[in-house]
Amino acid sequence: MAAIGTARPPVPSRPLMTFARRNALWGYLLIAPVILTLFALIAYPLGFAVWIAFTDRVVGLPGEWVGLRNFRYLIDWSSFTRAVTNTLTLVIVTGLAKLVLGLGLALIVNEQLRGRGFFRAVLLLPWAMPAFVVFLTWRVLFQPLGGGLNLLITEAGLMPFFEWVGIARTGYIDWLGERALALPSVIVATIWRGFPFWFIVLLAALQGIPGDLYEAAKLDGASRIRRFLDVTLPSIRNSIFIVVLMSSIWTANSFENIWILTQGGPSDATMILPVLSYFGLQNQRLGEAAAVSVAILPALLLMVIVTTRLIEDDE
Amino acid sequence: MVRRSDITRRSVIRGAVAGAGALAGAGGIAGMVAARKAPAVIQTGGTFTYWGGLIFSDAANSVLQSTIEEWCRSNGFEPDVVMINQNETVQRVSAAVEAGTMPDALDLGLDLALQLSSSGQLVAVDDLYETIGAAHGGWFESVANATAPERFGGSRVGIPFGASGNILFRRMDLLEEAGLTTAPATWQEVADQARAAQQPPATFGLGFSLSNVGDGNVMISIMQSYGGRIADDAGTTVMINSPETRTFLEWVQACATDGLFSPSNTTWDGAGDNAAYQAGQAVFIMNTGSVHIGLLDSDPELEEATGYSPLPDGPMGKISPLNPNIRSIPTTSSQPDAARALCEYLAMPAYSEQYYNSAIYGPVLQGERGFAIFSTEVHGALLGLVENGTAPAAPDQFNGAYAETSTTFAIPRMLQRMVVDGMSIDDTMAQAQTEIEAIYAKYV
Description:
The structure holds two protein chains of two kinds. Chain A is mainly α.
């Protein structure tokens, strides 16, 4: 019996890559330009700044690796300690105040008010104005002689009261020249400039809350405060996290507010890290200047990680 | 018979005027001819970039800019003249050095020139300095000392122009009301007169900046006139903590306790003293002259009531630093020959007299001494400063550590700690000593 030959079916040629892999590669290729751009714009400058912080680089000379020397110099420098404290105070106090102010105003403007559009536009003005104009204006307002705030207090007949409590000298309050008043004054100006950003983001978040959630809460007999705590706040939590993160980074890196108002004085009362870094640049000592900026990086990084984690948990 | 002379008084005057006109015309023509001859530009073509330092006088800025542009065009270059706010020069220059985009020539202050020369960024111009000096009667000694090669690593790194320094402005009207008619000769007299003439809260005696800006560093000069020193003669060992500094601090403390300083002077920006004086809120200020220019336009009455005098003496004599500006050529200049020719051209009277007429600067060349403007009160005081002023930083050594002490405002901040925080004199000196020692340690 003749054996019946069983012809083996042809083995299909194996593709070089599976469909899934091809797809993944294609995806990587598509996002490569973005990755490269991000690397060029963010990772490289950041990495370079961190590298410089460990060198004795000055303008025009490459510098050599000096390890932690720049950081040791900073730690021994009393102005640096003051700058760290002031930067943290500025970030935390302005952040809290902007949250209260921004959220409060957003809640008000979110109601069906007459002239709501007008209020929105007006409240955005401080944010729309160039920062240096804002802070120059505040500088004029804070002038001890002939400044707007002191005129207001004098006209209101309150100056004797301020003299009695020890805030005012004879006939004037030195808002920027007194240690106790300088940082609070800068904080007020910084809040005024920054709160509209919080206001507009939180307003947008409020407008995204479905109305039926409130209706349901009302039917359940929830009071106005309960509705705020149980409906509003959870709904805008992510927006608050994002605004906290961005605003904190901006405030920690702010420069114009301090430089225009006080240059870090009096006696380091308003010294913050960016101003200290600027002093390093004035000396053309890039290593030290970079070290000041890098010193705040771990704190900002921690804040980014925590906020991102909170947002992810929420989702 | 004696023939009656045809020469009348009128004809003499007419002749004199014509002669003067001819001389002036000839001078102008000669100047123009000389100006055309001056720039020995070897290579032409392309763009010539110049960074000029903006000063308070728009007219002076305009003269500088238009002159350079005209010179460029007549020598076959496309001009690119950028006028830079002098508060931003350090940042602009630092960025340009790092990016390799420095201009072909630029105006610099001595602090920045010192920093740039230490990293080899500026061309040596010793020969050009000699040539220009020889052509215009020589350099003033104080100017020559201020820009001496030993200060800049062994070479001249720029051609001086426009000597700057502080003079004392005083409100003669308020002082006369208090029976004070002569300019104070010592710092103690300044304090005494301020105490007598001030009318707080409308007017305060001393509009002196104690803030973190350049004006605050003028306090270093007062400290030095009391014998206080930043460092020793070698410029290496810090000497802030001394009996002489103590005397100076006692003077400052007394002024603060008596309420002589203008409010907020510890946080003033660079225009703080200008603003206080022009608002009529200060009896005395120290200023380079920008206030004078401002007053001529804005308040001629206050200008009329203002007296100008040299900075007074301390117990150890007068310290009145002279800071000439310089024109430097970066080593990366693509037109170094043209830059040299331009520097030579800008030193010529045809241009420089026009410039000094509107700028608030003292002369740098002996040949400029005769310019009419230097016989006026304010410019005369600046000429006096050039003749009698002290070298930058003197008696301290003008080196990198000293420059950093200035740019970090170590002395104004020392004063802030005492005036604002109420720190004791001993603690104030001790902290400043530690802080400045840390700076000097970096330069050993």
